[in-house]
Amino acid sequence: MTDPKVKQYLEFLRDERNSAALYRVLAEVEKNPKIAEVYRRLAAAEEAHVTTWAEKLKAAQAPVPSAKLDWRTRALIWAARRFGPGAVLPSMTALEKRGDQGYLKSGAPDGMAQQERSHAMLLNTISQTTRGGMEGAALAQLEGRHRSAGGNALRAAVLGANDGLVSNFSLIMGVAGAEVSNSTIVLTGIAGLLAGAISMALGEWVSVQSSRELYQKQIRTEQEEIAANPEEETEELALIYQARGLEEAAARQLARQMMSSEESALEALSRDELGIDPEELGGSAWEAAITSFLLFAVGAIIPLFPYFFLSGGPAIVVSAVCGAIGLFAIGAVITLFTGRSVLYSGTRQMLFGLAAAAVTFMIGRLIGVNIAG
Fold first, then answer.
1. What DSSP line would sit under 248-264, residue for residue?
2. Which among 86, 242, 300, 342 could bridge 193 via Cys, Cβ 3.0 to 4.6 Å?
3. SS3 of 179, please?
4. What's the rounded Cα separation, in Å, for the pair 201 and 337?
5. 266 in a domain, yes or no?
6. Which H helix or E strand runs over 120?
7. Nearest-angstrom CA–CA distance, 368 and 178
8. CB-CB contact of 87 with 152 (8 Å)
9. Which DSSP symbol is given to 232?
């Protein structure tokens, strides 16, 4: 057995261990017991893959390392516990697709690539359907497919911090290039931080609040339709369940059951017809606004704080270094969604951000010289 093969087995072993651990956590935090059971089955499938790669390592007379989660998995576990499964499902889907491609290229045992592809499709389906609820036999059908074949708050947080860092970094460098006083740079940086953070917060508040008001109107309309035409709404709900794969008789029975009380009928139609969770209505507008404000401010303060202690050339250098580190860190976090190399993603993000700051610095220098002249 060649060393490249052993290295590949080790990589697959680590990936499957990380996936299994994350699925176990998703099963713990998932509120819907049926979806939680799906996650447990996914974890069991990944653990079976772990056993396969461990046996291959033993057959190659290579040591099997002890289980240790990588930083990406620990970060996703934290996000899942903090924000819920929906925050990490897109990242998990991308990782499963990456595993499918890796298995196909490596000539993995029959069925393993197909299982990884099935996992990605299943996660994508859960991500889409849980926005409006996932009920009854529709979920059971998903579970059956898995047995035979094998939002995102976190993303918004990263992008919010990135917006704050890049925009204020470029602004500060542009003003610094004009060779103005240190107090002017600090004032400009604070103004840029507050203006950007307030704009982000207001935009987020308006967006979420508008969605909530629209959802409330749609639910009120649905409530009126239930009272006026309960038979028609029952038929509509039955058709939805049929479209999800239920037989006609089972779909009608489930629809009648859901329409047995006004409360359950309104919840079922809100989730299944409108795609609205009546308990959340898209989340809190104030929470979204405050979060956006803070995340933008965190990014924006990174290139600014050196000017609180330094001035002139040293302040510019330290600010650039802090901005570069912040950009690299954001690029590294983005790999949670893309599965790309941390070095590649972090370096790319850093170079783009530094290029933008360099352009504004040169423009500021040009304008400053012309004004002084």
1. HHHHHHHHHHHTTSHHH
2. 300
3. coil
4. 24
5. yes
6. helix 112-129
7. 4
8. yes
9. H
The length of the chain, given as a count of residues = 373
Tell me which residue of 196, 191, 190, 170 sits closest to 307, measured CA to CA: 190
Q: Which of 272, 302, 323 is the last residue of a domain?
A: 272
Query: 43: which 2 tokens?
Result: 């974890």
Q: What confidence tens digit (pLDDT) does each residue in 174-224 have?
A: 999 888 889 999 999 999 999 999 998 898 888 888 878 877 787 777 777
Separation of alpha carbons 187 and 185, rounded Å: 5
Matching residue, tokens 């507050």: 194
Greatest CA separation found in the chain? 85
Helices then strands, counting H and E runs in the chain, come out as 14, 0
The H-or-E segment that residue 93 falls in is helix 89-106
Distance (Å, whole) CA 223 – CA 216 = 10
Give this prediction's pTM: 0.61
Residues 345 and 204 in one domain: yes
278 lies in a domain? no
Buried b (16+ CB within 10 A) or exposed e, 189-206: beebbeebbeebbeebbe
* 125 contacts 142 by C-beta, under 8 angstroms: yes
